[in-house]
Protein backbone atom coordinates (compact mmCIF):
# COMPACT_ATOMS: atom_id res chain seq x y z
CA UNK A 1 0.00 0.00 0.00
CA UNK A 2 2.82 2.39 0.87
CA UNK A 3 4.55 1.59 -2.43
CA UNK A 4 1.27 2.24 -4.31
CA UNK A 5 0.73 5.57 -2.55
CA UNK A 6 4.29 6.64 -3.33
CA UNK A 7 3.77 5.72 -6.96
CA UNK A 8 0.53 7.72 -7.10
CA UNK A 9 2.27 10.74 -5.62
CA UNK A 10 5.06 10.40 -8.18
CA UNK A 11 2.52 10.27 -11.05
CA UNK A 12 0.71 13.33 -9.71
CA UNK A 13 4.02 15.20 -9.36
CA UNK A 14 5.10 14.23 -12.87
CA UNK A 15 1.74 15.41 -14.26
CA UNK A 16 2.03 18.76 -12.45
CA UNK A 17 5.55 19.29 -13.81
CA UNK A 18 4.50 18.38 -17.35
CA UNK A 19 1.48 20.70 -17.16
CA UNK A 20 3.60 23.51 -15.74
CA UNK A 21 6.20 23.11 -18.46
CA UNK A 22 3.48 23.19 -21.11
CA UNK A 23 2.16 26.42 -19.60
CA UNK A 24 5.42 28.27 -20.18
CA UNK A 25 5.20 27.64 -23.94
CA UNK A 26 1.96 29.64 -24.03
CA UNK A 27 2.19 33.12 -25.69
CA UNK A 28 1.69 34.78 -22.30
CA UNK A 29 5.03 33.24 -21.20
CA UNK A 30 7.10 34.51 -24.11
CA UNK A 31 8.12 37.49 -22.02
CA UNK A 32 10.58 35.19 -20.28
CA UNK A 33 12.74 35.43 -23.40
CA UNK A 34 13.21 39.12 -22.57
CA UNK A 35 15.08 38.30 -19.37
CA UNK A 36 18.10 40.64 -19.38
CA UNK A 37 21.47 38.94 -19.16
CA UNK A 38 24.16 40.27 -16.90
CA UNK A 39 24.39 41.58 -13.40
CA UNK A 40 21.68 42.28 -10.90
CA UNK A 41 19.35 40.09 -8.87
CA UNK A 42 17.38 37.65 -10.97
CA UNK A 43 14.05 38.63 -9.41
CA UNK A 44 14.63 42.28 -10.43
CA UNK A 45 15.52 41.23 -13.98
CA UNK A 46 12.32 39.17 -14.15
CA UNK A 47 10.29 42.27 -13.22
CA UNK A 48 12.19 44.26 -15.84
CA UNK A 49 11.35 41.69 -18.53
CA UNK A 50 7.70 41.63 -17.51
CA UNK A 51 7.44 45.42 -17.55
CA UNK A 52 9.03 45.59 -21.01
CA UNK A 53 6.57 43.03 -22.38
CA UNK A 54 3.63 45.03 -21.05
CA UNK A 55 5.02 48.32 -22.31
CA UNK A 56 5.58 46.90 -25.81
CA UNK A 57 2.13 45.31 -25.97
CA UNK A 58 3.34 41.71 -25.99
CA UNK A 59 1.30 41.25 -22.81
CA UNK A 60 -2.18 42.78 -22.64
CA UNK A 61 -4.37 43.63 -19.68
CA UNK A 62 -6.06 40.44 -18.48
CA UNK A 63 -3.43 38.04 -19.87
CA UNK A 64 -2.76 35.20 -17.45
CA UNK A 65 0.85 34.57 -16.47
CA UNK A 66 2.26 31.06 -16.02
CA UNK A 67 2.31 29.71 -12.46
CA UNK A 68 5.32 30.65 -10.37
CA UNK A 69 6.37 27.01 -10.04
CA UNK A 70 6.31 26.64 -13.84
CA UNK A 71 8.51 29.71 -14.31
CA UNK A 72 10.94 28.44 -11.66
CA UNK A 73 11.12 25.07 -13.40
CA UNK A 74 11.65 26.66 -16.81
CA UNK A 75 14.48 28.86 -15.55
CA UNK A 76 15.95 26.27 -13.21
CA UNK A 77 15.83 28.55 -10.19
CA UNK A 78 14.44 28.39 -6.70
CA UNK A 79 10.71 29.04 -6.36
CA UNK A 80 11.32 31.86 -3.85
CA UNK A 81 13.12 33.88 -6.55
CA UNK A 82 10.04 33.84 -8.79
CA UNK A 83 7.74 34.47 -5.83
CA UNK A 84 9.79 37.54 -4.96
CA UNK A 85 9.63 38.76 -8.57
CA UNK A 86 5.84 38.34 -8.77
CA UNK A 87 5.46 40.15 -5.44
CA UNK A 88 7.58 43.06 -6.69
CA UNK A 89 5.59 43.23 -9.94
CA UNK A 90 2.37 43.25 -7.95
CA UNK A 91 3.64 46.06 -5.73
CA UNK A 92 4.44 48.11 -8.84
CA UNK A 93 0.92 47.63 -10.16
CA UNK A 94 1.97 45.42 -13.09
CA UNK A 95 0.02 42.31 -12.14
CA UNK A 96 -2.71 41.17 -9.79
CA UNK A 97 -3.55 37.79 -8.34
CA UNK A 98 -6.92 36.17 -7.77
CA UNK A 99 -7.13 33.26 -5.34
CA UNK A 100 -8.01 30.09 -7.19
CA UNK A 101 -7.65 31.67 -10.64
CA UNK A 102 -4.03 32.70 -11.04
CA UNK A 103 -1.99 35.82 -11.81
CA UNK A 104 -3.01 38.33 -14.49
CA UNK A 105 -1.63 41.46 -16.12
CA UNK A 106 -3.29 44.37 -14.39
CA UNK A 107 -5.58 46.59 -16.45
CA UNK A 108 -3.83 49.74 -15.24
CA UNK A 109 -0.34 48.34 -15.35
CA UNK A 110 1.11 51.14 -17.47
CA UNK A 111 -0.73 54.30 -16.44
CA UNK A 112 -0.80 55.18 -20.12
CA UNK A 113 1.18 54.41 -23.24
CA UNK A 114 3.77 57.05 -22.39
CA UNK A 115 4.31 55.60 -18.94
CA UNK A 116 2.66 58.61 -17.27
CA UNK A 117 0.58 58.60 -14.11
CA UNK A 118 -2.87 59.46 -15.41
CA UNK A 119 -4.58 62.36 -13.64
CA UNK A 120 -6.52 63.28 -16.78
CA UNK A 121 -9.20 60.58 -17.08
CA UNK A 122 -12.16 60.85 -14.71
CA UNK A 123 -12.61 57.34 -13.34
CA UNK A 124 -14.09 56.01 -10.12
CA UNK A 125 -11.27 54.76 -7.90
CA UNK A 126 -10.81 50.99 -7.57
CA UNK A 127 -13.15 49.74 -4.82
CA UNK A 128 -11.05 48.51 -1.93
CA UNK A 129 -12.10 45.20 -0.42
CA UNK A 130 -14.19 44.09 -3.41
CA UNK A 131 -13.22 42.30 -6.61
CA UNK A 132 -15.05 43.90 -9.51
CA UNK A 133 -14.02 41.03 -11.77
CA UNK A 134 -15.33 38.51 -9.27
CA UNK A 135 -18.66 40.29 -8.92
CA UNK A 136 -19.11 40.48 -12.68
CA UNK A 137 -18.24 36.81 -13.15
CA UNK A 138 -20.56 35.62 -10.39
CA UNK A 139 -23.50 37.71 -11.57
CA UNK A 140 -23.08 36.81 -15.24
CA UNK A 141 -22.97 33.13 -14.31
CA UNK A 142 -26.15 33.53 -12.25
CA UNK A 143 -27.90 35.44 -15.03
CA UNK A 144 -26.99 32.81 -17.63
CA UNK A 145 -28.01 30.04 -15.24
CA UNK A 146 -31.54 31.33 -14.76
CA UNK A 147 -32.19 32.75 -18.24
CA UNK A 148 -32.26 31.16 -21.66
CA UNK A 149 -29.08 32.33 -23.40
CA UNK A 150 -30.71 32.54 -26.83
CA UNK A 151 -33.49 34.74 -25.48
CA UNK A 152 -31.07 36.86 -23.47
CA UNK A 153 -28.87 37.52 -26.49
CA UNK A 154 -31.74 38.34 -28.83
CA UNK A 155 -33.30 41.76 -29.49
CA UNK A 156 -34.94 43.43 -26.49
CA UNK A 157 -37.15 46.49 -26.00
CA UNK A 158 -35.33 49.78 -26.47
CA UNK A 159 -34.87 51.57 -23.18
CA UNK A 160 -34.80 48.36 -21.16
CA UNK A 161 -37.40 45.93 -19.84
CA UNK A 162 -39.87 46.92 -17.15
CA UNK A 163 -37.87 45.00 -14.56
CA UNK A 164 -34.67 46.79 -15.55
CA UNK A 165 -36.43 50.16 -15.47
CA UNK A 166 -37.78 49.33 -12.02
CA UNK A 167 -34.25 48.66 -10.79
CA UNK A 168 -33.08 51.90 -12.40
CA UNK A 169 -35.83 53.87 -10.65
CA UNK A 170 -34.71 52.39 -7.33
CA UNK A 171 -31.11 53.46 -8.04
CA UNK A 172 -32.24 57.02 -8.83
CA UNK A 173 -34.56 57.33 -5.82
CA UNK A 174 -32.00 58.93 -3.43
CA UNK A 175 -31.63 61.79 -5.92
CA UNK A 176 -34.97 61.97 -7.73
CA UNK A 177 -37.36 60.54 -5.19
CA UNK A 178 -40.04 58.14 -6.39
CA UNK A 179 -40.11 57.84 -10.17
CA UNK A 180 -42.47 55.68 -12.21
CA UNK A 181 -40.34 52.94 -13.83
CA UNK A 182 -42.08 53.54 -17.15
CA UNK A 183 -40.47 56.99 -17.30
CA UNK A 184 -36.91 55.65 -17.03
CA UNK A 185 -34.87 54.74 -20.13
CA UNK A 186 -31.71 52.63 -20.05
CA UNK A 187 -29.03 53.94 -22.39
CA UNK A 188 -25.66 52.44 -23.39
CA UNK A 189 -23.66 55.15 -21.64
CA UNK A 190 -24.25 58.81 -20.84
CA UNK A 191 -22.96 60.09 -24.18
CA UNK A 192 -25.65 58.14 -26.05
CA UNK A 193 -28.29 59.43 -23.66
CA UNK A 194 -27.04 62.99 -24.05
CA UNK A 195 -27.14 62.66 -27.84
CA UNK A 196 -30.73 61.39 -27.65
CA UNK A 197 -31.75 64.35 -25.49
CA UNK A 198 -30.16 66.91 -27.82
CA UNK A 199 -31.70 65.21 -30.84
CA UNK A 200 -35.10 65.37 -29.18
CA UNK A 201 -34.91 69.05 -28.22
CA UNK A 202 -33.41 70.04 -31.58
CA UNK A 203 -36.48 68.46 -33.18
CA UNK A 204 -38.71 70.93 -31.31
CA UNK A 205 -37.04 73.94 -32.93
CA UNK A 206 -34.46 74.63 -30.21
CA UNK A 207 -31.37 76.13 -31.80
CA UNK A 208 -29.31 77.29 -28.79
CA UNK A 209 -27.76 75.31 -25.96
CA UNK A 210 -26.74 77.47 -23.01
CA UNK A 211 -23.90 76.29 -20.78
CA UNK A 212 -21.16 77.44 -18.42
CA UNK A 213 -17.78 78.66 -19.71
CA UNK A 214 -16.12 75.34 -18.77
CA UNK A 215 -18.08 72.17 -19.50
CA UNK A 216 -17.83 68.46 -20.21
CA UNK A 217 -16.34 68.27 -23.74
CA UNK A 218 -18.78 65.58 -24.86
CA UNK A 219 -21.70 68.01 -24.80
CA UNK A 220 -19.86 70.35 -27.17
CA UNK A 221 -19.32 67.50 -29.62
CA UNK A 222 -22.95 66.40 -29.41
CA UNK A 223 -24.29 69.95 -29.78
CA UNK A 224 -22.28 70.42 -32.97
CA UNK A 225 -23.65 67.17 -34.40
CA UNK A 226 -27.22 68.38 -34.01
CA UNK A 227 -26.59 71.91 -35.25
CA UNK A 228 -27.07 73.58 -31.89
CA UNK A 229 -25.43 76.95 -31.29
CA UNK A 230 -23.54 77.21 -28.00
CA UNK A 231 -24.23 80.25 -25.81
CA UNK A 232 -22.03 80.75 -22.75
CA UNK A 233 -23.65 81.87 -19.51
CA UNK A 234 -21.30 83.57 -17.02
CA UNK A 235 -20.74 81.63 -13.81
CA UNK A 236 -19.57 82.46 -10.30
CA UNK A 237 -18.27 80.18 -7.53
CA UNK A 238 -21.83 78.94 -6.98
CA UNK A 239 -22.52 77.91 -10.57
CA UNK A 240 -24.26 79.59 -13.53
CA UNK A 241 -25.47 83.11 -12.71
CA UNK A 242 -29.32 83.10 -12.80
CA UNK A 243 -29.55 86.82 -13.62
CA UNK A 244 -27.02 86.45 -16.43
CA UNK A 245 -29.02 83.48 -17.72
CA UNK A 246 -32.22 85.54 -17.76
CA UNK A 247 -30.50 88.33 -19.69
CA UNK A 248 -28.97 85.85 -22.12
CA UNK A 249 -32.32 84.26 -22.88
CA UNK A 250 -34.19 87.54 -23.35
CA UNK A 251 -34.91 88.01 -27.03
CA UNK A 252 -33.49 84.63 -28.04
CA UNK A 253 -35.47 81.92 -29.76
CA UNK A 254 -36.18 78.54 -28.16
CA UNK A 255 -33.24 77.37 -26.11
CA UNK A 256 -32.11 74.76 -23.58
CA UNK A 257 -29.80 74.90 -20.56
CA UNK A 258 -27.13 72.26 -19.92
CA UNK A 259 -25.95 71.89 -16.31
CA UNK A 260 -23.94 69.49 -14.16
CA UNK A 261 -25.17 70.72 -10.77
CA UNK A 262 -23.34 68.22 -8.55
CA UNK A 263 -19.51 68.20 -8.70
CA UNK A 264 -19.42 70.03 -12.00
CA UNK A 265 -17.07 68.65 -14.62
CA UNK A 266 -14.49 70.21 -14.66
CA UNK A 267 -14.76 72.94 -12.00
CA UNK A 268 -15.98 70.62 -9.19
CA UNK A 269 -18.63 73.18 -8.13
CA UNK A 270 -21.75 71.78 -6.46
CA UNK A 271 -24.72 74.12 -6.63
CA UNK A 272 -26.62 74.69 -3.41
CA UNK A 273 -30.43 74.24 -3.34
CA UNK A 274 -31.03 77.99 -3.65
CA UNK A 275 -29.00 78.23 -6.87
CA UNK A 276 -30.76 75.18 -8.30
CA UNK A 277 -34.13 76.71 -7.51
CA UNK A 278 -33.19 80.06 -9.03
CA UNK A 279 -32.05 78.42 -12.29
CA UNK A 280 -35.23 76.34 -12.43
CA UNK A 281 -37.32 79.49 -12.02
CA UNK A 282 -35.46 81.31 -14.80
CA UNK A 283 -35.93 78.28 -17.05
CA UNK A 284 -39.64 78.24 -16.28
CA UNK A 285 -40.05 81.94 -17.10
CA UNK A 286 -37.92 81.73 -20.25
CA UNK A 287 -39.49 78.42 -21.34
CA UNK A 288 -36.12 76.62 -21.39
CA UNK A 289 -35.59 72.90 -21.46
CA UNK A 290 -33.02 71.82 -18.83
CA UNK A 291 -30.52 69.05 -19.52
CA UNK A 292 -29.30 67.85 -16.11
CA UNK A 293 -26.16 65.74 -16.44
CA UNK A 294 -25.76 64.13 -13.02
CA UNK A 295 -23.01 61.48 -12.98
CA UNK A 296 -21.66 62.14 -9.49
CA UNK A 297 -24.65 62.60 -7.15
CA UNK A 298 -24.77 58.99 -5.94
CA UNK A 299 -21.21 59.36 -4.63
CA UNK A 300 -22.68 61.58 -1.89
CA UNK A 301 -24.01 59.92 1.26
CA UNK A 302 -26.79 62.51 1.13
CA UNK A 303 -27.01 63.73 -2.47
CA UNK A 304 -28.53 67.16 -3.13
CA UNK A 305 -32.01 67.16 -4.66
CA UNK A 306 -31.88 67.04 -8.43
CA UNK A 307 -32.94 70.02 -10.52
CA UNK A 308 -35.47 67.62 -12.03
CA UNK A 309 -37.31 67.59 -8.68
CA UNK A 310 -37.70 71.39 -8.90
CA UNK A 311 -38.77 71.62 -12.55
CA UNK A 312 -39.88 68.10 -13.55
CA UNK A 313 -41.99 69.33 -16.45
CA UNK A 314 -38.96 70.63 -18.36
CA UNK A 315 -35.89 68.72 -17.08
CA UNK A 316 -34.10 65.76 -18.65
CA UNK A 317 -32.25 63.91 -15.88
CA UNK A 318 -29.28 61.79 -16.99
CA UNK A 319 -27.28 59.66 -14.53
CA UNK A 320 -24.49 57.31 -15.58
CA UNK A 321 -22.90 54.46 -13.63
CA UNK A 322 -19.51 55.25 -15.19
CA UNK A 323 -18.40 57.67 -12.46
CA UNK A 324 -19.74 55.90 -9.39
CA UNK A 325 -19.39 52.19 -10.25
CA UNK A 326 -17.48 51.46 -13.47
CA UNK A 327 -17.28 52.94 -16.99
CA UNK A 328 -17.11 49.41 -18.40
CA UNK A 329 -20.77 48.87 -17.53
CA UNK A 330 -21.71 51.35 -20.30
CA UNK A 331 -25.04 52.02 -18.61
CA UNK A 332 -26.86 55.25 -17.84
CA UNK A 333 -30.39 56.09 -16.79
CA UNK A 334 -32.39 58.83 -18.52
CA UNK A 335 -35.62 60.34 -17.22
CA UNK A 336 -37.12 62.80 -19.73
CA UNK A 337 -39.91 65.23 -18.84
CA UNK A 338 -43.39 63.87 -19.58
CA UNK A 339 -44.02 66.12 -22.62
CA UNK A 340 -40.82 64.84 -24.25
CA UNK A 341 -40.94 61.18 -23.23
CA UNK A 342 -42.05 59.71 -26.56
CA UNK A 343 -39.79 61.93 -28.66
CA UNK A 344 -36.76 61.09 -26.49
CA UNK A 345 -37.46 57.35 -26.65
CA UNK A 346 -37.66 57.58 -30.45
CA UNK A 347 -34.38 59.49 -30.63
CA UNK A 348 -32.70 56.95 -28.36
CA UNK A 349 -33.97 54.08 -30.49
CA UNK A 350 -32.60 55.75 -33.63
CA UNK A 351 -29.16 56.20 -32.03
CA UNK A 352 -28.91 52.86 -30.23
CA UNK A 353 -31.50 50.20 -30.86
CA UNK A 354 -31.10 48.81 -27.36
CA UNK A 355 -28.62 48.62 -24.51
CA UNK A 356 -26.58 45.42 -24.15
CA UNK A 357 -29.02 42.81 -22.76
CA UNK A 358 -26.33 40.95 -20.81
CA UNK A 359 -24.86 44.06 -19.21
CA UNK A 360 -28.34 45.43 -18.46
CA UNK A 361 -29.24 42.15 -16.78
CA UNK A 362 -26.08 42.31 -14.65
CA UNK A 363 -26.75 45.93 -13.64
CA UNK A 364 -30.37 45.17 -12.81
CA UNK A 365 -29.38 42.16 -10.69
CA UNK A 366 -26.73 44.21 -8.86
CA UNK A 367 -29.27 46.88 -7.95
CA UNK A 368 -32.00 44.42 -7.01
CA UNK A 369 -29.72 42.25 -4.86
CA UNK A 370 -27.83 45.10 -3.16
CA UNK A 371 -24.49 44.44 -4.88
CA UNK A 372 -24.52 47.87 -6.55
CA UNK A 373 -24.90 49.58 -3.17
CA UNK A 374 -22.02 47.55 -1.71
CA UNK A 375 -19.84 48.44 -4.66
CA UNK A 376 -20.89 52.09 -4.40
CA UNK A 377 -20.01 52.14 -0.69
CA UNK A 378 -16.54 50.77 -1.46
CA UNK A 379 -16.00 53.38 -4.18
CA UNK A 380 -17.20 56.12 -1.80
CA UNK A 381 -14.74 55.07 0.89
CA UNK A 382 -11.85 55.08 -1.53
CA UNK A 383 -12.97 58.38 -3.10
CA UNK A 384 -13.08 60.05 0.31
CA UNK A 385 -9.63 58.73 1.20
CA UNK A 386 -8.19 60.03 -2.07
CA UNK A 387 -9.91 63.39 -1.72
CA UNK A 388 -8.37 63.69 1.76
CA UNK A 389 -4.93 63.08 0.24
CA UNK A 390 -5.61 65.81 -2.35
CA UNK A 391 -6.69 68.20 0.40
CA UNK A 392 -3.44 67.55 2.25
CA UNK A 393 -1.12 67.88 -0.74
CA UNK A 394 -3.05 70.55 -2.68
CA UNK A 395 -5.06 72.50 -0.09
CA UNK A 396 -5.90 75.21 -2.63
CA UNK A 397 -7.71 72.77 -4.94
CA UNK A 398 -11.49 72.71 -4.63
CA UNK A 399 -13.92 69.82 -4.81
CA UNK A 400 -16.45 67.87 -2.77
CA UNK A 401 -15.25 65.49 -0.08
CA UNK A 402 -16.85 62.67 -2.09
CA UNK A 403 -15.58 63.87 -5.46
CA UNK A 404 -13.42 61.91 -7.89
CA UNK A 405 -11.81 65.09 -9.25
CA UNK A 406 -10.70 68.51 -8.03
CA UNK A 407 -10.12 71.82 -9.78
CA UNK A 408 -6.91 73.79 -9.31
CA UNK A 409 -6.86 77.43 -10.46
CA UNK A 410 -3.81 78.59 -12.42
CA UNK A 411 -2.66 82.12 -13.30
CA UNK A 412 -4.25 83.37 -16.55
CA UNK A 413 -0.92 83.58 -18.39
CA UNK A 414 0.04 79.93 -17.87
CA UNK A 415 -0.18 78.34 -21.30
CA UNK A 416 -1.62 74.86 -21.71
CA UNK A 417 1.19 73.49 -23.88
CA UNK A 418 3.80 74.55 -21.33
CA UNK A 419 1.84 73.02 -18.46
CA UNK A 420 1.60 69.75 -20.39
CA UNK A 421 5.32 69.83 -21.10
CA UNK A 422 6.25 70.39 -17.46
CA UNK A 423 3.79 67.70 -16.36
CA UNK A 424 5.29 65.15 -18.73
CA UNK A 425 8.74 65.91 -17.36
CA UNK A 426 7.37 64.90 -13.97
CA UNK A 427 5.69 61.77 -15.38
CA UNK A 428 2.15 63.15 -15.16
CA UNK A 429 -0.78 63.24 -17.59
CA UNK A 430 -2.90 66.33 -16.87
CA UNK A 431 -5.76 68.11 -18.60
CA UNK A 432 -6.06 71.92 -18.66
CA UNK A 433 -8.98 74.32 -18.96
CA UNK A 434 -8.64 74.55 -22.74
CA UNK A 435 -10.08 71.04 -23.13
CA UNK A 436 -13.34 72.17 -21.47
CA UNK A 437 -13.75 75.63 -22.98
CA UNK A 438 -17.20 76.44 -24.40
CA UNK A 439 -15.97 79.86 -25.52
CA UNK A 440 -12.91 82.10 -25.52
CA UNK A 441 -13.54 83.66 -22.10
CA UNK A 442 -12.96 81.17 -19.32
CA UNK A 443 -10.87 80.63 -16.23
CA UNK A 444 -7.54 78.85 -16.29
CA UNK A 445 -6.77 75.75 -14.31
CA UNK A 446 -6.36 72.00 -14.09
CA UNK A 447 -8.95 69.30 -13.59
CA UNK A 448 -7.14 66.70 -11.53
CA UNK A 449 -8.74 63.26 -11.57
CA UNK A 450 -8.15 61.18 -8.45
CA UNK A 451 -9.39 57.75 -9.51
CA UNK A 452 -6.89 56.83 -12.22
CA UNK A 453 -3.79 55.73 -10.24
CA UNK A 454 -4.14 52.19 -8.98
CA UNK A 455 -2.86 52.91 -5.47
CA UNK A 456 -3.15 55.78 -3.00
CA UNK A 457 0.62 55.96 -2.70
CA UNK A 458 0.93 56.50 -6.45
CA UNK A 459 -1.74 59.19 -6.29
CA UNK A 460 0.04 60.98 -3.46
CA UNK A 461 3.30 60.97 -5.36
CA UNK A 462 1.55 62.30 -8.47
CA UNK A 463 -0.17 65.09 -6.54
CA UNK A 464 3.14 66.05 -4.98
CA UNK A 465 4.43 66.34 -8.53
CA UNK A 466 1.54 68.68 -9.36
CA UNK A 467 2.34 70.77 -6.29
CA UNK A 468 5.96 71.04 -7.44
CA UNK A 469 4.81 72.00 -10.94
CA UNK A 470 2.55 74.75 -9.59
CA UNK A 471 5.37 76.13 -7.48
CA UNK A 472 7.45 76.55 -10.67
CA UNK A 473 5.58 79.69 -11.68
CA UNK A 474 8.54 81.63 -13.13
CA UNK A 475 9.57 78.87 -15.55
CA UNK A 476 5.99 78.55 -16.80
CA UNK A 477 5.49 82.25 -17.37
CA UNK A 478 8.65 82.63 -19.44
CA UNK A 479 7.09 80.67 -22.28
CA UNK A 480 4.22 82.32 -24.18
Characterise the protein shown here.
This protein is an alpha/beta fold and about 475 residues long. The chain is globular, with a radius of gyration of 26 Å. It has three domains: about 1-110, Arc Repressor Mutant, subunit A (Orthogonal Bundle), CATH 1.10.10.10; about 135-370, Type I PLP-dependent aspartate aminotransferase-like (Major domain) (Aspartate Aminotransferase, domain 2); about 375-475, Aspartate Aminotransferase, domain 1. A seven-stranded mixed β-sheet has the order 5-13-12-11-10-6-7, sandwiched between helices. A three-stranded antiparallel β-sheet has the order 1-3-2. The chain has a three-stranded antiparallel β-sheet with strand order 14-17-16, with helices on one face. Helix content is about 45%, strand content about 15%. It has helices spanning about 1-25, 40-55, 70-75, 80-90, 130-145, 150, 160-175, 190-200, 215-225, 240-250, 275-285, 340-350, 355-370, 370-395, 415-425, 455-470, 475; strands at about 65, 95-100, 100-105, 115-120, 185, 210, 230, 235, 240, 255-260, 290-295, 315-320, 330-335, 405-410, 430, 430, 445-450.
Largest sheet: 7 strands, mixed
Strand order of the largest sheet: 5-13-12-11-10-6-7
| Overall pLDDT metric | 86
Structural class: alpha/beta
Query: What is the 3D shape?
Result: globular
Quote the distance from N terminus to C terminus.
86 Å
Number of strands: 17
List segments where confidence is low: pLDDT < 50 over at least 5 consecutive residues: 1-24, 109-114, 474-480
Q: Superfamily at the CATH H level of the largest domain?
A: Type I PLP-dependent aspartate aminotransferase-like (Major domain)
Helix content: 40-55%
| Radius of gyration based on Cα positions | 26 Å
CATH class of the largest domain: Alpha Beta
CATH architecture of the largest domain: 3-Layer(aba) Sandwich
Stated plainly, the CATH topology of the largest domain is called Aspartate Aminotransferase, domain 2
Number of separate helices? 17
Number of domains: 3
Q: Which band does the percent of strand residues land in?
A: 5-15%
